Amino acid sequence: MSTQDNLEKILRSMHVLIAKGEPAGQSRDRVIVSKQELLGLLKDLNICVYNIMDEYEMTQQSHDEAERKSRRKGEKIVKDAGKMAEDVYAASVMYTNEALNHIQRIIQNASDSMDEVFAQMKNELEERKDTVRENQLELEGQLHDLADTKKYLQIIEERNKELEKERQKLREKLDKVNSNMTQKAKKPKRAHKAEEFKIGDSVRVLSMNLKGTVSTLPNARGDLYVQMGILRSLVNIKDLVLIDEDASPAAKKYGGTSSGKIKMSKAASVSTEINLIGMTVDEAIAHLDKYLDDAYVAHLPSVRIVHGKGTGALRNAVQAHLKNQRYVKSYRMGEPSEGGAGVTIAAFDV
């Protein structure tokens, strides 16, 4: 593995470690990570940086060695040219124009050879400088992505806290309604039999005075699951009334559609996949949050989230958001046949 590949691997590991970190108390800009893992990654990063410096030093040494070799080669060319000139002088009694031209050509050839050697050495040095500059720019880009990821994680954490406060208010309101209505619950006009309930039927939970939709058939004890908005509760059929029985004569006459069937129709239209490519992190998280709620209410077992590969910032933000959703049982990177690193598969706790 090259030094560049090793550097990318270490930075990815640091991304993952920070993304998995738990919030540190009430602080919004701190997370709890494993000290041993972080020190290990920092040690690896330090070694990698020293390796890059060693490679640069070796490149500089190679340049110096090439310069020394070219200088020795140039001196040898000049020496050979001088020797050849002396041979011509010794063999000539008179300085004819032809002899002088021959000497001039020898000197010119020696000069051209030296220019060629230095030009080649200059080109090699420029190429090496460009390579080092590209590596520096790529490293700066990766560090910038790391800073952006931290910023996105803070935004997600703040949004999750706001959503949790809203959910807590809803729970408190439901608990209050449940407490008030338990004593006021009316008995059904007649006891329903288990076979009267079908998935999708619209019912009223007497103890809560809430409308809902039957999502499972009754078990041997007469218990079944009722979906009431984002709340899914196990209720006995003795605590249920089919809303069709309470419908007005006009509604029965014209065959009005029950709210439960409307909800089932909406649930059936929820796609098992969402595409976030091209969105900013804020836009993507807003779309993803609503989509996850719809998919969970629709009782989808799992969904496919397409975020693309890119720098990995959107993927990290999506997976950090999934980690903080209580109804998400697990998530994983897609298999090659599912889209690989450009896709995350999330499974619900249904």
What does this structure look like?
- The structure is a single chain.
- The protein is of the alpha+beta class and 350 residues long.
- It is 60% helix and 14% strand.
- It has eight helices and eleven strands.
- The protein has helices at 3-19, 35-91, 97-184, 243-246, 249-254, 259-268, 281-297, 313-323; strands at 22-23, 31-32, 202-205, 210-214, 223-228, 231-236, 240-242, 273-275, 302-306, 328-333, 343-348.
- The strands form three sheets. The protein has a five-stranded antiparallel beta sheet with strand order 6-5-4-3-7. Strands 8-9-11-10 form a four-stranded mixed beta sheet, covered by helices on one side. A two-stranded antiparallel ribbon has the order 1-2.
- Helix 7 links the parallel strand 8 and strand 9 (302-306).
- It is rod-shaped, with a radius of gyration of 38 Å.
- It starts with a helix and ends with a strand.
